TrEMBL record:
<dbReference type="Pfam" id="PF00484">
    <property type="entry name" value="Pro_CA"/>
</dbReference>
<dbReference type="GO" id="GO:0008270">
    <property type="term" value="F:zinc ion binding"/>
</dbReference>
<keyword id="KW-0456">Lyase</keyword>
<keyword id="KW-0862">Zinc</keyword>
<keyword id="KW-0479">Metal-binding</keyword>
<protein>
    <recommendedName>
        <fullName>carbonic anhydrase</fullName>
        <ecNumber>4.2.1.1</ecNumber>
    </recommendedName>
</protein>
<feature type="binding site">
    <location>
        <position position="39"/>
    </location>
    <ligand>
        <name>Zn(2+)</name>
    </ligand>
</feature>
<feature type="binding site">
    <location>
        <position position="102"/>
    </location>
    <ligand>
        <name>Zn(2+)</name>
    </ligand>
</feature>
<dbReference type="GO" id="GO:0004089">
    <property type="term" value="F:carbonate dehydratase activity"/>
</dbReference>
<dbReference type="InterPro" id="IPR036874">
    <property type="entry name" value="Carbonic_anhydrase_sf"/>
</dbReference>
<feature type="binding site">
    <location>
        <position position="99"/>
    </location>
    <ligand>
        <name>Zn(2+)</name>
    </ligand>
</feature>
<dbReference type="InterPro" id="IPR001765">
    <property type="entry name" value="Carbonic_anhydrase"/>
</dbReference>
<comment type="similarity">
    <text>Belongs to the beta-class carbonic anhydrase family.</text>
</comment>
Length: 226
């Protein structure tokens, strides 16, 4: 057995000791306040970035590119991973979490600009992103470097995923949809590991978001208005 796995099992034993009493209220049902859609990336610790250690609080869904889109029989629908808590547990807030330096956005950018090919499984996932990111690639400033292009497209992708949720008939109008970017590369102002609000219910203008939501005003920041 790989040492890395046995070390994880030991850490799980520590977790089990610490969490003995934290499942008492959620063993039979869950009513999470938020569904958080994050990118599958080893540097982005999904529950950890919210400071969450309480089972039943955040319903977490992860995939490369923090997508909310799923393709079924050539039709695009809201992913069941995201829709389940909205439909079945009364969750009324969805947060789409992008992150700086996103590998999925980078790979999609490469596919769109250089025709880079990936194995079929990855190609399928990127194929769900490509039609949403392609207009953003066309809008990029001429003088932006590669890293700058990717991080602008990270925001653009968050915007498109938020937009897809808002446009879906399967997501009730009273469900709030928020888009954020997690920064561990010193791209935004603030400290490493902070989340920056870039979109609230389709509004992307930072001043408008601050005016409407002064309680989060200090965390509103965008790299790119497009």
């Amino acid at each position: 057995m790989q040492e890395s796995f046995t070390a994880l099992l030991q850490q799980n034993a520590d977790h089990a000791r610490e969490f003995q009493d934290r499942f008492d209220d959620v063993q039979d049902a869950q009513r999470p306040d938020v569904v958080s859609v994050c990118c599958s990336d080893s540097r982005v610790l999904h529950d950890h970035l919210w400071g969450n250690d309480q089972p039943g609080t955040v319903f977490t869904a992860s995939n490369i590119g923090n997508r909310v889109v799923q393709r079924i029989d050539d039709a695009e629908v809201v992913s069941g991973d995201v829709l389940y808590p909205i439909e079945h547990t009364g969750t009324e807030t969805v947060v789409v979490v992008g992150h700086t330096g996103c590998g999925a956005v980078t790979a999609t950018y490469d596919a769109l600009t250089d025709g880079v090919e990936e194995p079929p499984g990855i190609e399928h996932c990127l194929g769900l992103l490509e039609p949403y990111l392609e207009p953003g690639v066309e809008l990029l400033p001429d003088d932006v470097d590669r890293a700058g292009a990717v991080n602008r497209l990270v925001e653009y992708n968050v915007d498109r995923q938020v937009e897809f949720l808002l446009d879906s008939d399967n997501v009730a109008d009273d469900v709030q949809v928020v888009g954020v970017v997690y920064d561990f590369q010193d791209v935004y102002s603030g400290r490493r590991g902070e989340l920056h609000v870039v979109n609230v219910d389709g509004e992307t203008d930072p001043d408008a978001i601050r005016d409407a939501h002064p309680d989060v005003g200090g965390r509103v920041e965008r790299l790119w208005s497009h």
